[in-house]
Each structure stands twice: as structure tokens, then as C-alpha cells.
């Protein structure tokens, strides 16, 4: 038989073991509660993140639509102004030219000096009409009626004719197989015009190369010149670059400028053939 001290010691060991198991069980339960709380917090964070991502996507779609609408309103206003100038001021200038031509014919024999002066006035008027036609074409480019590639080719030909800057154009076959898109083509053409205008005003270039290529559903246009380049502060903004960025955003695209002083400038426009706001 066990003696009393041994029984007491055994009882104390059993009591100690029971307390240890109880403590371990309590700790395990607390760990389970902590893990459950952390899991709930993670679920809440995931839901909040998912909601924020949906809100961000919705905001992006809204901004994209607003940008497209704004550009559409601008383009419609340009076309209206162009029509008004053509139908009103253009017709008045044409009538004035006819009157001056008749006056020149009637004074050629009797008043040669007057006829000569009238001839000079007709020359000034012809240049005014040519400038007016250029303004009208900038407001509503008729070249786009033949498609974006033809419009780009015409714009580059005008650049060479007016400013003596040689040009090179490379358009990959089938890059516009998706068909014409008035908003997209108009924005791309305006971006090209502004890019070439920057080349004329700032680059002091003698050559410009334009490429139009496609990778999947993304279309890319590059405009490269061999001019003096620009410092980083100018590459970040100004010179119409803000307007270029806005037009690119309106069609779901982006613009990158790569330029170093003395090394020319490369403008890269990339945009989806299906605008992201429509895709969403």
C-alpha cells in the first residue's frame, strides 16, 4: 500500500498536470479567437480593397467618357467655326476678288498704274484666301475623309512643302483593319498636328519620321525628329504637350516623350483600338 506522503505527492502531480493542460487549453482557445479576429480583419480589408478598386475603375471610366465627350464637343465647335468662316468670310473674300479682277480688267488700258495697284491687291487677297483655307483645314481637316493613313501622309507632305523638312512615313499593313473611328482618328490626327507644330517651332529639325504600328489591340504612333532635343523640364510639360496628353486620355491612350538635348525627340502615342471606357 502507498504511504500517505506518496499519495499526497501523486495528487499534487495530478493537480499540477491538470492545471498545465487547462492553461494550454486556454491559450489554444485564445489563439483561435485571435486568428478568427485577424481573419475577420483580413476579410474586411479585402472587401474594402475590392470596393476601392471598383470605385477607382468606375471613376476611370467616367473620366474617360467625360474626356471623350469634351473632345467631341471641341471637335464639333471647330467644325462649326470652320463652316461659318468658309460660308461667310470665304464667300465675301471670293466676291471681293471677283470685283477686283473686273476692276483690273477695266483699268488696264486707261489707267495702267491703277491696274498694277489692283493686281498687287489681288495678290495680297490670294494669300489671305490661302491662309484662310489653311485655318479652315486646321479647324475641320478634310484629309480625314480619306482615312487616317491618308490624312497623316497629307499632313507630312504639307510639312515638307511649307517648311522644307524631309519626312518618312511607315504604316504597317492591316494596322487599322478594325475600321474607322471618327473620335479616335480625329484625336490621333490632332496629336500628330501638334507634334509636328512643336517640331517646326522648337526642334530646328531637318527630318521627321512617323510610324504607325499595331500589337494585338494596341495601336502605336511614333513621331521622331533629328532636332536639338529638349531638356527634361520642357519634356514634362508645355509646348502643347498637356493638350496632347488630354487628347490621348480621351481615347484611353498614353503619351511618352523621350528626348535629350542635342539628340532629337521621340514622341510615342499608344492607345487601344477599342477605348478602355467602352471596353469597361
Secondary structure layout:
Blueprint: H1 4-107, H2 112-139, H3 148-163, E1 166-171, H4 182-203, E2 207-215, E3 218-225, H5 232-235, H6 241-250, E4 254-259, E5 265-272, H7 276-279
Parallel strand pairs: 1-2
Antiparallel strand pairs: 2-3, 3-5, 4-5
Helix pairs in contact: 1-2, 1-6, 3-4, 4-6
Quick recap:
This protein is of the alpha+beta class. The protein is built from seven helices and five strands; from the N terminus they run αααβαββααββα.
Feature tags:
280 residues; alpha+beta; Heat Shock Protein 90; 5-stranded mixed β-sheet
Report what the structure shows.
The structure is a single chain. By secondary structure, this protein is of the alpha+beta class. It has a domain at 146-280: Histidine kinase-like ATPase, C-terminal domain (Heat Shock Protein 90), CATH 3.30.565. The chain has 7 helices and 5 strands, in the order H-H-H-E-H-E-E-H-H-E-E-H. The protein has helices at 4-107, 112-139, 148-163, 182-203, 232-235, 241-250, 276-279, and strands spanning 166-171, 207-215, 218-225, 254-259, 265-272. The protein has a 5-stranded mixed beta sheet with strand order 1-2-3-5-4, covered by helices on one side. Helix 3 packs parallel to helix 4 (182-203) and helix 4 runs antiparallel to helix 6. The longest helix is centred in the first third of the chain and has 104 residues, at 4-107.
